[in-house]
Known about the structure:
Layout: H1 4-28, H2 35-49, H3 52-59, H4 66-85, H5 88-92, H6 96-119, H7 126-132, H8 136-157, H9 161-193
Helix pairs in contact: 1-2, 1-6, 2-4, 3-4, 4-8, 6-7, 6-8, 8-9
Main location: endoplasmic reticulum
Transmembrane segments: 7-27, 101-121, 133-150, 162-185
Keywords: Endoplasmic reticulum, Fatty acid biosynthesis, Fatty acid metabolism, Lipid biosynthesis, Lipid metabolism, Lyase, Membrane, Transmembrane, Transmembrane helix
Amino acid sequence: MPASKPYLLLYNSISALLWLRVLLTVVSTYSDPFIYTAVGRWARWTQTLAALEILHAATGITRAPVFTTFTQIFARCVQVWAINYGFPRVTESSSAYPAMLFAWSTADVVRYLYFTVLLAGIPVPKLLKWLRYSLFLVLYPIGIGSEWWLMYRAATVTASPLVAGTFYFCLGLYVPGSVMMYSYMVKQRRKTLSK
């Protein structure tokens, strides 16, 4: 057994549980005007923990492509720190915030659970495999659209031209970035579900 396997099993198990907590909080407080207060800190630190996945890919302990992993993790970390934390009034007043967290947490609970089962050496149930490679078809557009809207709103309210310019630049990157991520997942879906 490779030395990294127990670590990855622990990492994926903890990540699944953390995202499950975010998901349950979002579902139970979806229309609550204080949803940001209820889940913001958990979402921020749970997403920040995922930065380890860039190291996992870069060091070769996972087979994930480094650039794709970096792109997704970096974009989400910018979202939770620079947008959601940096502009709480924009975040807490928008229905895009719970929609984004619902999409992220649903996808990540399934993804981390899938990897936990795989690493534990248990046969992956067909439903879990299908969910892992199919939910993104709906959840990615919800998540990406929500991220984009929250960043756009932050760009329109900031007093700093430098921050606004940076946000507008990032908003422009969403089009090629989201196409790249979506295309990658479609290929992964085809390859995995055709087996």
